[in-house]
TrEMBL record:
Pathway: Porphyrin-containing compound metabolism; heme O biosynthesis; heme O from protoheme: step 1/1. GO terms for molecular function: protoheme IX farnesyltransferase activity. GO terms for biological process: heme O biosynthetic process. This is Protoheme IX farnesyltransferase. The keyword Transmembrane helix applies.
Length: 309
């Protein structure tokens, strides 16, 4: 057994030994991955707001809360399953389970209960189409991405990114009760955005993933290939971001804003492609901008919908 493997076993055993009831409220909030949840909730809310039709404001709030709770539940189960690799990755060592503040069984129970609650409330209060999409999203993130893809293939983020792309479809279905071409486009934008976003992070956190044995693209294919893939996906994302205007369910204003945002994304990706393995600044800048890009793009879609009445 390697030293790293031994460290994982020791830290995980310590987490298992934590008695129940020692975790704080802040630890349970941390399990929900609130920073990730904020983006998920926002895109889900935009999907709901731009969908044709009307949903009572109270039901709209319930739908968004269910999306938030479902996303948080997925994060909690992810932390339970990944507690061994979280223990050796610098950016995740302070999470409640590897830090020894929470028993893994508590995290799993918390995630499972919230998952069932969010789906049930969505179905009973809103509609079962949205509930089915929410259940599928949670299941995809937990079983397909976390348990199957993440530790087995460098395409983990490409395929697994679908889980983070479903929220606007869920929001749309909460209003309409179905899935349409427009909601699929909203899904596709996030799906195409996910690889360059996470690969930019992986470029400057490559050592973390290597120590944990996670086959992220920079670990398996190297720095240069990762930079090339980031550029390819960015070139595909930029025109896709303008699709709502091209397809007629967003206006000219959105089309202009999305075009500018996409152009800036490509510029940032070009800087990463031209960069070197020793300089992580372009990757860090692209990672930061990618978050701003998605918030701004969906914000522009929301404003466009309000302007259109």
């Amino acid at each position: 057994m390697t030293d790293t493997s031994a460290d994982i076993v020791r830290i995980d055993a310590a987490a298992e030994a934590v008695p129940g009831g020692t975790a704080s409220v802040a630890d349970y909030v941390a399990l929900l991955k609130p920073r990730v949840m904020s983006l998920v909730v926002f895109t889900g809310a935009v999907g709901l707001a731009v969908a044709p039709g009307h949903l009572h404001p109270v039901l709209a709030v319930i739908a968004v809360l269910c999306i938030a709770i479902g996303a948080g539940a997925s994060g909690a189960i992810n932390m339970w399953y990944d507690r061994d690799i979280d223990a050796v990755m610098e950016r995740t060592q302070a999470r409640p389970i590897p830090a020894g503040r929470m028993n893994p069984d508590e995290a799993l129970a918390f995630g499972v209960v919230l998952s069932g609650f969010s789906v049930l409330v969505m179905g009973l209060a809103v509609n079962w189409a949205a509930a089915a999409l929410l259940a599928g999203t949670i299941g995809f993130y937990v079983f397909i991405y976390t348990m199957w893809l993440k530790r087995r293939t460098p395409q983990n983020i490409v395929i697994g990114g679908a889980a983070g792309a479903f929220p606007p479809m869920i929001g749309w279905a909460a209003v309409t009760g179905d899935v349409s071409v427009a909601s699929i486009v909203l899904f596709a934008i996030i799906f195409m955005w996910t690889p360059p976003h996470f690969w930019a992070l992986a470029l400057w956190r490559c050592g973390d993933y290597a120590r944990a044995g996670v086959p992220m693209l920079p670990v398996v294919a190297g720095d240069r290939e990762t930079r090339r893939q980031i550029l390819i996906y960015s070139l595909l994302l930029a025109p896709l971001g303008t699709a709502p205007a091209l397809l007629g369910f967003a206006g000219t204003g959105y089309g202009i804003v999305s075009g500018v945002l996409g152009g800036l994304f490509v510029v940032a990706a070009l800087r990463v492609w031209r960069g070197s393995a020793a300089d992580h600044r372009p990757a860090k800048q692209l990672f930061g901008y990618s978050i701003l890009y998605l918030f701004a793009l969906y914000g522009a879609l929301l404003v466009d919908s309000w302007v259109a009445g």
